[in-house]
Amino acid sequence: MNKLSGWNDTIVALSTPQGIGAIGVIRLSGTEAWQIVNRLFPSKDILRQPTHTLHVGFLKHNDQVLDEAVVALFKGPRSYTGEDVVELSCHGSPYILEQVINACVTEGARMAKPGEFTQRAFLNGKLDLTQAEAVADLIASNSAAAHHTALHNIRGGFSAVLKDLRDELIQFSALIELELDFSQEDVEFADRTRLYELITHAQSVTGQLIQSFRLGNVIKNGIQVAIIGKPNAGKSTLLNALLNENRAIVSDIAGTTRDTIEEVLNIEGVLFRLIDTAGIRDHTADAIEMIGVEKSREKMRSADLVLYLFDVNDTVQEVASAVKEIEATGTPYVLLGNKADTLPEATLKEKFSSLKVLFLSAKHVLNIESLKKRLVDAVISGDLGSEDTIVTNARHYQALQQVAAALSDTKNGMDNGLPGDLLALDIRRCLHFIGEITGEINTEDKLDYIFSKFCIGK
Question: pTM for the full model?
Fold first, then answer.
């Protein structure tokens, strides 16, 4: 990929987090990276050293010793950015790091913009756009599932799926457009049967990718779980049991929880954002409690999953009425019968035979592990360790929807016997939106927006 204008200078930035630490890493990239460091590193002539080597010595500027550092050299194109790169491992004092960066700027570097190192890697063909965006996802990953998905995409998993699609569509597009040059001869270079099979296959692949976005969004952002129920059903006790700590206040007084309490729980690599809500009841004289009840209903409507907790001593009609209210929101839910230790198992099964209920005891931590498994099963099917590609990026999702629409138009055109020139237009639309995902089709403004979300130094 050709560079955009204004990308021939040398940039510098701190690549480790701000604050005091044992080590801070400063990265430079660009045509003058080695020369700039060479002027600050009198211990050795950097320009005579081979690539991918480490060197220890003092950094000096204006006859003042800045620090003793480890200098790592990477000659382009065998570097992260594809350019000449130097990484300075200094002591982690913010003052030292600031002094070294200022010295680099004085010697000719400029401060890097957010994501500029990865943007240069993309512009130099070291990564495509999906891989570049996966770098940011990997840095931001806070669960095993998010880490696995980002790593899979960095290694080119998503890119490989799109490349196979794109290559086949390009081949047929070229053949169809070649037919246009011989329109007077009435010849067909593109096998229409094979093209129809390809479009059908492409629709299947694209559909699977679009469907995976729901799971991808869960993996990337976690899933909001609202714990709903009447006062004294045991919601706060359940939250404490799931977290294995006393996070919420528990008492026998109805309406103890007045506001929502939110905590994050990692189950099998997926983040669940648990929301303990105020007990829902229609008649209360307490104005503050009423506000809490309304907030509970808001959380129920906005949640990705609802856990409806009820006391097994409640009537079936009460539970069924609550279920009807939840179903009206369209939100997936799990019914939990609490205080299951107070009734015989046979009685529970007979009493609630018309409902699909998981019985537990939050107080005695009975069936809590079964609930955790049910939570995972409610949002994830299959093995997270598989190599299936999962879409986690909203930009990719929107572009894939456009690809699916173009594929549908192509197939409908073939069904209706449209001429090759019109089929070629629809295939070009497919290629355009696939190219938007991987970066073959882009504008400088779009790239600037995408990479502006990265951290500085990456």
Answer: 0.62
